[in-house]
Design a protein that fits this description.
about 350 residues; 13 strands; seven-stranded mixed sheet; alpha/beta; Aspartate Aminotransferase, domain 1
Length: about 350
């Protein structure tokens, strides 16, 4: 089975398993796990922040950040298609009691201008605008990169307004590698960042939330409240330390995604916007195939390819370390055959 649903399906490497079996551990809730401390220190240094916090998931990292940055009734500005809006179960309102102000095309359009137009003066009728959430790479944008200069300009505008900026950087290393820039070129454009170890970097579990020491102290209490006190978490952190050394290999995933996209774009009945294939995601649109994306994915599964529906007529395909170049070619052939089958039915 060729699994292109997500880069979250990767399996830990032998090096990770060995590191996990030999990890030195302690009770992390008491601050006594040396492997967790080592991972947090390495992560903070890597993204240019004072401190970092190991959390089980990216969602928990984002939500702990929102809770630590805001108070109940505050407003958070965010792209209408952002992960925190679409894939985190309404947690900002459920947990932090904040109002999300969803801005169409914030990440793909003129971000500084759209942000500026969303600002409101102090008024008894308005929620205090306290936080701007950015995302890089942009998941629902097809893994596209928000340029660092656009982020920097927006960050400066937010600072002038007295707002904090949090970056959902689940795949920030994909952005860094694809853009040929240091990760700090992106992370200096935000006050806090969450990034995942369990996606392209291949660790089985875990994400990091990084920011100032004062911020991380607050976020640590929210992590505990959210159930993220993991005790002897060094077993997991050990795999994360290995994962941090796997950043450069992300270029292989990007090359495979480009190869897949170009191959699919030769199929007359489908369409791929090659300009948006910037990292490890390919969004395939069924242009002349009268079948839902869900039915199409079910047929692909029966033929040996796992893919994810993306809207009514879109299919998301994600390359990762457990998908090889030869499998990319095989997947392209299977997708082409499936398109042909449904075209005949139509």
């Amino acid at each position: 089975m060729i699994d292109l649903r997500s880069d979250t399906v990767t399996r830990p490497t032998p090096e990770m398993l060995q590191a996990m079996s030999q990890a030195e551990v302690g009770d992390d809730v008491y601050g006594e796990d040396p492997t967790v401390r080592k991972l947090e220190e390495a992560a903070a240094e890597l993204v240019g922040k004072e401190s970092a916090l190991f959390v089980p998931t990216g969602t928990m990292g984002n939500q702990a950040a929102i809770m630590a940055h805001t108070g109940r009734g505050d407003e958070v500005l965010v792209d209408a298609e952002a992960h925190v809006v679409n894939y985190e179960v309404g947690a900002p309102s459920m947990l932090a009691g904040v109002q999300l102000r969803m801005l169409p095309f914030l990440l793909e359009g003129n971000t500084p201008e759209i942000f500026t137009q969303s600002l409101r003066p102090e008024n008894i009728h308005f929620s205090p605008q306290k936080l701007l959430c950015l995302e890089n790479t942009f998941n629902r944008g097809g893994g596209t990169i928000v340029p660092s200069d656009k982020m920097q300009e927006t960050y400066q505008l937010a600072r002038e307004k007295g707002m904090a900026v949090h970056l959902d950087g689940a795949r920030i290393f994909n952005a860094s590698v694809a853009a040929g820039q240091e990760v700090k070129d992106f992370t200096r454009c935000c006050d806090t960042i969450m990034f995942c170890l369990s996606k392209g970097l291949g660790a089985p579990v875990g994400s990091l939330l990084a920011g100032s020491k004062t911020f991380i102290e607050r976020a640590r209490k929210y992590r505990k409240a959210l159930g993220g006190g993991m005790r002897q978490a060094g077993v997991l952190a050990a795999a994360g330390l290995v994962a941090l050394d796997m950043r450069e290999r992300l270029s292989e995933d990007h090359q495979n995604a480009r190869k897949l996209a170009e191959g699919l774009n030769t199929i007359e009945e489908v369409e791929v916007d090659l300009e948006k294939v910037q990292t490890n995601m390919v969004i395939l649109k069924l242009r002349e195939v009268t079948v839902s994306s869900y039915d199409f994915c079910r047929e692909l599964k029966a033929r040996g390819v796992l893919a994810g529906p993306h809207g009514v007529n879109g299919i998301r395909l994600v390359t990762h370390k457990d998908v090889f170049s030869s499998q990319v070619e095989e997947a392209r052939e299977i997708i082409g055959e499936t398109v042909e089958r449904f075209s005949r039915i139509a």
